[in-house]
Each structure stands twice: as C-alpha cells, then as structure tokens.
Automatic annotation (TrEMBL):
PANTHER family: CYTOCHROME P450 YJIB-RELATED, P450, PUTATIVE (EUROFUNG)-RELATED. Residues 1-32 are annotated as: Disordered. InterPro entries: Cyt_P450_B (IPR002397), Cyt_P450_sf (IPR036396). Belongs to the cytochrome P450 family. Transmembrane segments: none annotated. It comes from the Bacteria. Residues 11-22 have a biased composition (Pro residues). GO terms for molecular function: heme binding; iron ion binding; monooxygenase activity; oxidoreductase activity, acting on paired donors, with incorporation or reduction of molecular oxygen. SUPFAM superfamilies: Cytochrome P450 (SSF48264). This is Cytochrome.
C-alpha cells in the first residue's frame, strides 16, 4: 500500500514500551530534512550514495538515528526478508528517546492495523483486503471515476482557470475510494466524510485534524455496522463476509488504511503526471487525447517523481549486515523508494527506462500494496488525467514551470498547487 504523509498524521500518538538501551547516532549521520530534500531530493540521494553507498546513516526529526536504504537491490532485499526486517515497530531501540509529541509517532507507534501486522496475522488481514479489492470491477470503477471527474470539472470549467490540486486531484481519488467502500455517491454524509478525510490526511492552516480523524473513525464504524446489517456489492461488505472473520474494529482500522492509501498518493500521482504533461515538450504534440502518452507519463512519474518518496519503515529483528553496514537489532530502516528507482546500478547509462514497470513505487514483498491496489490506483489516475485533457484540451499552466513548488516533505512527492488556465467551457 501507499501511505499518507507522516507530516499530516492525525490522531493521538500510540504508545509503546521503550526497550532498554538507545544506541547513539552514527557520526556521519545526515539530517533527513532541509530545502534540498524538499525541492530537489534526487540530487541529495546522489550525494548520499556517493558518500555512504547504498545505506546512509540519517537523523529523523529531533535527531533520532535511522538508516536510509538507497539501493534498489538493498530495498528489494529488505522488503523480501521479513524475518530480518519486520514491520512491528515495538522492536525499535530508540523508544526511550522519542518524545510524546514527536511528529512521526502516529506512523511508527504500533497500531492494531494490517500495516503493523506480521506473519500469519498479516497474511490473514492482507488476504481479506486483497480479495475484497480483487472483486472490484475495473470498468465500473472507471465509469464511476469518469462521473466524479465530470462533476468536479463542471464546477470550474466555466471560469477559465483552476487550482487542480484542491479542486480536482485530491478530491477525485477520495470520492472514488469512499464510494468503492460502500458510501453512496453524492450524499451529504459522503461529502462530510470526504471533507473530514481531507482534513485528517492533509490539514490546512486552521483545520483540526484530530477532531476530523475522530469523526472519520466514527463514520467508518457506522458504515461497518450498516454493512454488517445490510451488505452490498462493495469492499466493506466483502471484508465483513470474508471467511477469516475479522472483528468490526479490525475492519474499521484496515478500511481507514485502504482509504488513506488510495487518496493522498493517488492524488499526487495524478498531479505529478499532469505537471509532466504540461511542462515536458515530449508530450506537447499529442497531449490532448493521446492515451498512449498519458500511460507513458503515468509510468514515468512512478520512476522519477513517485508519490511515496520514502517510507518509515522496517525494524531489524537481529544484528545483521546490509550494504556493507552493521545493522543492530532494533534499528529503524527508512525505505528510500525514490532513490532506489533512480539507482545507477540498475540504470548504468544514466537513462531511466520509464517504459518498464519494475519500479518500487508500490514497495515489494509481503507488505507491498496488495496486488489489485496498483491496478485500481492506475484506473483512478488514468481516468482523472484523460478526462481532464478531453474536457479541457487547451489547458496550460497559469504560472511558469519554475514557480511550481513541491510540498515541504521528505515522505511524499507532490506539488503545493497546480494552477492552470483554459478556454472557459459553458454547459
């Protein structure tokens, strides 16, 4: 699965018991922050690789030490060996140094969801999600996404301009995800949930993400209760009816994970693709209605501007060696998905072959996105991009490309805004 930005983490921080001992940071550790990381991370990945090789010692918020896994082979190895690098963060050897208000705590503190489950429990929880998503009709999903896209475009088509991040890219996958889970299309209750999900995952100034997240949990709990009584043809009902017999509270946690994974990364995938199409001359001649070029742009973005840049993380089960480094039991490893995708070991001539799909943007191994999820995300993103270009064929950026700004995050790769202009369309 994709995960939302830890900087926008909702809810109260989960608690975990600190194990004894807090090893000191590596003397050459590099802070995982700063403008270079936010705006030109690829340059920083190259310098880290030159100085440290495929595994770099880094410092998280507050000077907390971790390892950033930069190499394609090394990320693949870590994600393929759960017996050495596991997801249960209660193993972390840094808990005694973590303050109660640490920004990343909601994303590393152990939670009773599929994201932190391991072994047979993870297989049980992930299996339920996989089978529920496998039953989604991709043609029906594309139809629903087209309707959502048309409605969103109708709201700004007559104005001749729009800011697409807020008005389109973020709203479309959120509406698609909640409808896929069984919320009725267009209802006031559904729109309220969409607003609260937006606030809880990507709070703006003045928003209250904690209260919004509480309302999201309550609304998903009501959805699960309703679907338990009156099942339908939706993801929630299929999870409830699965022979694994998940409890309602387990399904609530996992549904929120599914919706969050479907929204923010997919929104950034849509917007990063639109940015590429609107700024790269290779796509200029056939951008309007050129389905092949849209597919190429979507795939190229996963290689070069993947929405999930870095993911925290994995925790070493025991002392081991990785990329020439001694990894101690309980050390935290941050998966450098973006760095791995541009590893010169797999692109020795310096040219990224974006025509293939062997990227790590959906991670790898048992904890990667469940098999149907990348396909469904592709349906949502492709439909969003194609519908916009078909409805507004002369759309152009409203600002010079150099004025576009990336969000100040080391975790997600997405623009703060994507302002565009086009010929107004009435009716």
């Amino acid at each position: 699965m994709h995960w939302p930005d830890p900087l926008d983490a909702p809810g109260a921080p989960p608690q975990a018991e600190p194990p004894p001992g807090c090893p000191a940071a590596h003397p050459d550790s590099v802070p995982l922050s700063g403008l270079e990381f936010q705006q030109t991370p690829s340059q920083l990945y190259r310098s880290l690789r030159r100085e440290h090789g495929p595994i770099a010692p880094v410092l998280l918020d507050g000077g907390i030490p971790a390892w950033l896994v930069l190499g394609y082979s090394e990320v693949s190895y870590v994600t393929s060996h759960d017996e050495l690098f596991a997801r249960d963060s209660r193993r972390w050897n840094q808990w005694a140094a973590i303050p109660a208000d640490w920004p990343l705590l909601p994303y590393v503190g152990h939670q009773p969801s599929v994201l932190f489950a391991e072994g047979a429990e993870h297989q049980r929880r992930a299996g339920v999600i996989t089978q529920a998503l496998e039953a989604v009709d991709q043609f029906e999903l594309a139809h629903d996404c087209r309707q959502i896209a048309e409605q969103l475009i109708d709201a700004f088509a007559g104005s001749g301009g729009a800011e697409l991040m807020a008005a389109y890219a973020h709203a479309l996958p959120m509406r698609a995800a909640v409808q896929m889970c069984g919320m009725p299309a267009g209802g006031a209750d559904t729109e309220e949930l969409v607003r609260d999900l937006r606030v809880s995952l990507d709070a703006a100034e003045g928003d209250d993400p904690v209260s919004a997240y509480v309302r999201v949990q309550e609304r998903i709990q009501r959805l699960v209760t309703d679907k338990r009584a009156r099942p339908g043809s939706d993801v929630t009902s299929r999870m409830l009816g699965h022979p694994a017999g998940l409890a309602d509270d387990e399904i609530v946690q996992d549904l929120i994970s599914v919706i969050a994974a479907a929204q923010q990364p997919t929104a950034n995938w849509i917007c990063n693709t639109l940015r590429l199409l609107l700024t790269d001359d290779r796509f200029a001649l056939n951008v309007s209605g050129g389905r092949l070029s849209v597919g190429q742009a979507l795939n190229e973005v996963l290689w070069l501007d993947t929405p999930t840049q870095n993911f925290i993380g994995r925790w070493a089960v025991r002392d081991t060696q990785l990329g020439g480094r001694h990894i101690r039991a309980g050390d935290c490893l941050v998966l450098g998905l973006a760095a791995a995708n541009t590893d010169p070991q797999i692109w020795p001539d310096g040219h990224i072959g974006a025509e293939n799909s062997a990227h790590l943007s959906f991670s790898n191994g048992e904890h990667r996105c469940p098999y149907p999820a990348p396909l469904l995300a592709d349906v949502i993103a492709r439909t969003a991009v194609e519908t916009l270009l078909e409805r507004l064929p002369d759309v152009v950026l409203a600002v010079p490309p150099g004025e576009l700004r990336w969000r100040p995050s080391i975790w997600m790769r997405g623009l703060t805004a994507l302002p565009v202009e086009f010929t107004p369309v009435v009716g």
